[in-house]
Amino acid sequence: MLEPTRQRLPAREADLGDGMRVRRALPTRLRRMVGPWCFLDHFGPVDVSRTSGMRVPPHPHLGLQTVTWLFEGEVVHRDSLGSHQRIVPGQLNVMTSGRGIAHSETSPAPHPPALHGLQLWIALPDEARHAPAAFDHHPALPSLDHRGLRLTVMVGEALGQRSPARLYSPAVGIDLRAEGPVAAQLPVDPAFEHAALVTAGTAWIDGEPLQPGALLYLGGGRDALEVRTEGPARLTLLGGAPFQTPIQMWWNFVARTREELSAAVRTWNDGGGSFGEVQGDPGERLRSPVPPWSTVT
């Protein structure tokens, strides 16, 4: 039985080079998932006017969907299906890895001076994780105003608006923006567990103050969420039905067993195999680190 709670989860900071800072809010030692959401990076805001911006070389994914959402800047996605897509704020990229895909994400040249956004993963259920890979770009998403909040439904459904993004598990992801003081009750699904991440400013979620740098896990069993701001703020609400199957994660792979993870590492490091090659990206492929339990070299 899901019950309401408030659990503050500090994000872990990492430096990706060229001044690019990332706050990793999922997974953490205290919580591995929120519904099917198993990974959440908040990058920026960062001044990239004098750098190459984002540069994530070709790398593989297995057993998950990547969700890319920008607040500022531009990013170019390339993958082993032949996709080549630029994304700007207000648009959504969803890549379904299925049994394997490789991709890269880079800033175009020239690019805007600032970069700020989210990179999220959704674990695929058993019936979808061995399916063929796919990539979808959504140039527009449903938005609405609700009691002073501007809501954009990235994935799932909220307040009668449904995102076109394909999902394989019950889930929701909402971008909320306040331009000034707001006090709103936001309807939510009591069958979902939820978490909130503030990406700019300060917001009070069910009375708990939240700023960038921490994820607030809210549990479930509630049909509304109180959101309050005293000035401009932006936050992301994630939710979903509790994932029914325990997962194993290593590097960019989501699986069920360590054996599957070791096999994925071996396949990628041996040349790519079923992951394929990222087309049109001259960058050197990232090599997977070897898990400590594995004999893979």
Describe the structure.
Helices cover 4% and strands 50% of the residues. It has 297 residues and is mostly beta strands. It has one domain: Sandwich (Jelly Rolls). The strands form six sheets. Strands 1-22-19-24-17-14-13 form a seven-stranded antiparallel sheet, with no helix packed on it. Strand 13 and strand 14 form a beta hairpin. The longest helix has 12 residues. It is globular and about 55 Å long. The termini are far apart. The mean pLDDT is 95.
The CATH topology turns out to be Jelly Rolls
Largest sheet: 7 strands, antiparallel
What is the helix/strand order?
Answer: EEEEEEEEEEEEEEEEEEEEEEEEEEH
Tell me the total number of β-strands: 26
Mean pLDDT: 95
Shape: globular
Query: Low-confidence stretches at least 5 residues in length (pLDDT < 50)?
Result: none
The top level CATH class name: Mainly Beta
CATH superfamily: Jelly Rolls
Quaternary arrangement of the chains shown? single chain
Strand content: over 45%
Strand order of the largest sheet: 1-22-19-24-17-14-13
The helix/strand class is mainly beta
Instruction: Estimate percent helicity.
Output: under 10%
CATH architecture field: Sandwich
**Rg to the nearest angstrom?**
19 Å
Number of domains: 1
Distance between the termini: 44 Å
Number of helices: 1
